[in-house]
Write a structure and sequence with these properties.
The complex is a heterotrimer. By secondary structure, chain A is an all-alpha fold. Chain A contains 10 helices and no strands. Chain A has one domain. Chain B has one domain. Chain B starts with a helix and ends with a helix. By secondary structure, chain B is an all-alpha fold. In chain B, 80% of the residues lie in helices and 0% in strands. In chain C, helix 3 runs antiparallel to helix 4. Chain C contains 5 helices and 8 strands; from the N terminus they run βββαββαααβαββ. By secondary structure, chain C is of the alpha/beta class. In chain C, a hairpin with a 2-residue loop joins strand 1 and strand 2. Classes of the chains: A mainly alpha, B mainly alpha, C alpha/beta. Chains in contact: A-B, A-C. At the A-B interface, helix 8, helix 9 and helix 10 of A face helix 5 and helix 6 of B.
């Protein structure tokens, strides 16, 4: 537990010292949404229908993009191999990493959501469901993003590779979270979708640490 | 059992055995697929709804089965490599990926050609086609990752891990895509819900599937033999093999 | 104690060193010597368990995992000297009093730099930061890759003295270095070619 606290503290200090890590995904997110609005056109009826699509696509991209660097710094400066050698639980280490990443990228995103919702003509209920969706789906996205980052760790910097590897795995969370928004717009129950998103999250958090640990050990080897 | 396993993991022995099997499997696959093609095109009955268009099924369905089995096979090879550290298994997994990608691509192409007369459109976001598209993307990811790893000069353990993650995910993806499909209220005609197939249709289909398996393994053996020769080019046995042939 | 038998390390299909055998007991210091590319780093990394592509036997008879200093410093540029030392020490489960930390910092000449970002340190100063957790630890088994490189004269003398102190306490130290090092006591060496 103390190690978890120490790790997460270290992560947060790092994000605090490099605010661009927090701001860039957010700005990127806003830009993608903005450009999509330009592409769709300003008409209200059309925007309300299409907006959820690009809200989610932008979220996936922003999270994946920022997750790509989660382990890179530690790998390059040698901290990673010290953690591996120390015999400390790597599971705790990756949990701290992904938790910190989730907090600093997703909390601003949720805060931005009402603002975005108003400009896209969402009603109050839709904004609320949107925020719920973000809170439910992003932990899974963060974990999967970390898996992508760990698998490509130590490879020549190639931002696209992580995207190519991980985006297909984003299909199920995307389906359930958009389903949730649609269900709410049609006035149907959203609870099944909540359960599904939670289910996927639990599966991810149960299996991903094994994958992450294997990848990190591998990366520390060379 | 394990001893036998490790013995087969020796590239030299595997190369010798697979060289012996290469031609028979290739010949057999040509024979089965070629012969069965005649059966499928000329003698199998046309569908009462779709007419002769249904015959594309004999390419489409086996390719789909092989694309999926190919992924499972690749993940199994990767697991063998990760657990027992047998290099040959890594090369085996590598040899599957482009093959699986081509097969999934074939599924999409034939599905699209089949869609034109049946649905009236080249592409319909049918649940099965969509899952196959994701499968193709997974294969392409594997190929991209392999390329990056080889550029750096490391082995394929990262690929192996990704393949296994993909294997766990495929059922989830498939299920979610089915859900998505029903969510979007599809048009009423369906490719997937034909009346139960008569024997005269599924028997040639089954034989075609067997033919495709043979084809898959014959191409795979070509590829893995190539891979062995490249990786072991500095060893004495490859040099003597190259000299003698 | 550490016993190594017939250790062969493969890197990119080539044997870096083969059939290496040696043993180190408590109270002994072993220097790994050899020219660039002879596998010093790989040997240290193999001993500590980071590198697994080897044949042979490595037996540690220890209750805890050894302290390790790698080729890369493990120091985060965006944290201060003190934050880095605290993090590194937390990896080793070490409990210490604040006064102990102050002493070590003073010894290493880092006292005035405590709240400076490590990005602003020189290579040698960073080296000293990564030495600090070793001095705060009760763990007597150290594995260090090139601990002397980049240190100034005083730093080298200081680290040599620390080595001597640890040896007297029954420590077991293995380090690599291509320069001759004097410590307060006898020094054994393994030569890689």
């Amino acid at each position: 537990m103390t190690f978890f606290k120490a790790s997460i503290r270290r992560e947060l200090i790092n994000y605090h010292r490099k605010p661009s890590l927090v701001l860039n995904p957010l700005v990127f997110y806003g830009l993608v949404v903005f450009l999509s609005v330009i592409a769709v056109g300003p008409e209200k009826g059309q925007l309300v229908q299409v907006a959820p699509a690009f809200i989610w696509t932008a979220a996936l991209l922003a999270i994946l993009m920022s997750a790509d660097g989660v382990f890179r710094n530690d790998y390059e400066d040698g901290s990673l191999e010290l953690v591996v050698v120390s015999g400390k639980s790597l599971a705790v280490y990756v949990l701290a990493k992904t938790t910190a990443h989730w907090i600093v990228t997703v909390v601003p995103l949720v805060l931005l959501m009402p603002l975005l919702g108003i400009t896209l003509f969402f009603d109050f209920r839709s904004i609320w469901v949107l925020c719920l969706g973000i809170v439910l789906v992003t932990p899974t996205l963060s974990i999967l993003g970390a898996v992508g980052a760990a698998i490509t760790l130590g490879l020549p910097r190639n931002g696209m590779l992580t995207f190519v590897l991980i985006l297909p795995f984003y299909v199920p969370p995307l389906i359930f979270v958009t389903g949730m928004i649609q269900a709410s717009q049609l006035g149907e129950a959203i609870l099944p979708f909540v359960y599904w998103l939670l289910g996927i999250f639990f599966l991810a958090i149960a299996l991903a640490p094994m994958v992450l640990i294997a990848c990190l050990r591998m990366a520390a080897e060379d | 059992m394990l001893g036998w396993f490790h013995k087969l993991g020796s590239p030299k022995l595997f190369f010798e055995i697979s060289t012996r099997w290469q031609n028979p499997i290739t010949a057999l696959s040509v024979l089965v697929i070629g012969g069965c093609a005649f059966w499928c095109l000329l003698f199998a009955p046309a569908d009462y709804q779709q007419g002769h268009a249904v015959r594309i099924m004999y390419i489409h369905v086996p390719a789909a089965i092989l694309a999926q089995s190919g992924y499972i096979f690749m993940a199994l090879c990767s697991a063998v490599y990760l657990i027992w550290n047998i290099k040959l298994a890594d090369w085996a997994a590598k040899s599957v990926a482009p093959l699986g990608a081509s097969l999934s691509f074939l599924v999409l192409i034939t599905g699209s050609i089949w869609g034109k007369p049946t649905w009236g459109a080249w592409w319909v976001w049918d649940a099965r086609l969509t899952s196959t598209l994701v499968l193709l993307l997974l294969y392409l990811g594997m190929i991209a990752l392999r390329g990056a790893l080889e550029e750096k000069g490391t082995d394929g353990r990262a690929c192996g891990i990704l393949a296994i993650v993909g294997l766990v995910n495929i059922p989830i993806i498939k299920f979610s895509v089915d859900w998505w499909f029903t969510l979007h209220q599809p048009a009423s005609f369906k490719l997937t819900e034909q009346p139960a197939m008569p024997l005269e249709m599924w028997l040639p289909l089954l034989i075609m599937v067997i033919g495709y398996y043979l084809f898959f393994f014959s191409v795979w053996i070509y590829r893995i033999r190539n891979e062995i020769l490249i990786r072991e080019k500095k060893t004495a046995w490859v040099k003597s093999w190259a000299g003698s042939s | 104690m550490l016993e190594v038998e017939d250790l062969t390390c493969l890197r990119k299909g080539r044997a870096l060193f083969s059939e290496l055998s040696f043993s180190v007991r408590k109270g002994e210091i072993l220097q790994v010597v050899g020219p660039n590319g002879s596998g010093k780093t790989t040997l240290i990394r193999t001993l500590v368990g980071l590198y697994t592509n080897f044949r042979g036997e490595i037996n540690w008879n220890l209750s805890e995992s050894p302290l390790f200093m790698g080729h890369r410093s493990g120091i985060n540029d965006h944290m201060t000297v003190r934050e880095n030392v605290e993090w590194l020490v937390s990896l080793n489960d070490q409990v210490f009093k604040p006064s102990q930390l102050d002493d070590v910092m003073k010894n290493l000449g880092l006292a005035k730099l405590e709240s400076i970002f490590c990005a602003d340190l020189s290579f040698g100063q960073k080296k000293k930061v990564s030495i600090a957790p070793f001095l705060l630890s009760d763990n007597l088994c150290w594995l260090m890759d090139e601990p002397f490189s980049g240190l100034d004269k005083n730093g080298v003398a200081l680290l040599g003295k620390f080595f001597g102190d640890r040896m007297a306490e029954g420590g077991l130290i293995i380090f690599s270095s291509h320069q001759p090092v004097s410590i307060g006591g006898p020094l054994r060496s393994v030569v890689l070619s």
